[in-house]
Specification:
By secondary structure, the chain is of the alpha/beta class. It has a single domain, classed as Rossmann fold (3-Layer(aba) Sandwich), CATH 3.40.50.300. It contains nine helices and eight strands. It is globular and about 50 Å long. The structure holds 2'-deoxycytidine-5'-monophosphate.
């Protein structure tokens, strides 16, 4: 059967990753979380005190960073940074607050995009992020742009954090969501934008299952078409 690339871009906390994961598993495709790669890089920078103002330090650090996605004993796939499972750590508020600044750097983006393209060589993948349909895979057969209101997204993220035992105020999360929208959309390097051939899905009032079904239908039409 023909294999395609599915690019899912959109605002933070729109459920891109959960959606992409299910779509990939239903199609027997590989799922790749490009945001996790920026988060893992951010974690490394924080841990090693890499200054974003010093390009030589940034470039040296990027050479030391090896990110992979590996199956865990629990049957999930987790993000590994230099051989260590960092899946939990990269979702902390500390990383969330700093990741937009790190991902705005041209050097960081070039390194990540090269790795992402290599991972997509075989097709049969679903990748989610901000610039997948615009920069990483401009020829992706299916491009989705996901959005939802900032309040709905902040509520979802708060619930997620609560389930992990982290209590963060709604106001703090909403401010983080809005700040990231602003930074992601206004940065000069690969800003978040909806490309012309992307299909927009606003899921403020759309259930998770309906959203998955909608994307699967679109994907199957491309695969069989
Ligand atoms: O999808 P996420 O919230 O885990 O992504 C974390 C950050 O990484 C987000 O604030 C923007 C950045 N990012 C990016 O610039 N390009 C991507 N392809 C994916 C994420």
């Amino acid at each position: 059967m023909k294999k395609i690339i599915i690019a899912i871009d959109g605002h933070s906390a729109t459920g891109k990753s959960s959606t992409a994961k299910v779509v990939a598993s239903r199609l027997g495709y590989l799922y790749l979380d490009s945001g996790a790669m920026y988060r893992a890089t951010t974690l490394y920078f924080l841990k090693h005190g890499v200054s974003l103002a010093h390009k030589a330090d940034v470039l040296r650090a990027l050479e030391e960073i090896h990110i992979s996605f590996e199956p865990t004993a629990q049957g999930n796939t987790a993000t590994f940074l230099n051989g260590k499972n960092v899946e939990e750590e990269i979702r902390s508020m500390e990383v969330s607050n700093y990741v937009s600044a790190v991902s705005a750097l041209k050097e960081v983006r070039q390194a990540m995009v090269a790795q992402q393209r290599a991972l997509g060589k075989q097709k049969g993948i679903v990748m989610d992020g901000r610039d997948i349909g615009s920069v990483v895979f401009p020829h992706a057969e299916l491009k989705i742009f996901m959005t939802a209101s900032a309040r709905v997204r902040a509520l979802r993220r708060q619930k997620e954090l609560q389930e992990k035992g982290q209590s963060v105020s709604f106001e703090e999360i909403l401010a983080n969501v809005q700040e990231r929208d602003h930074q992601d959309s206004t940065r000069s390097e690969s800003p978040l934008l909806k490309v012309e051939d992307a299909i927009e899905i606003d899921n403020s009032e759309l259930s998770f299952n309906k959203q998955v079904e909608k994307i699967l239908q679109l994907a199957l039409a491309k695969i069989n078409g």
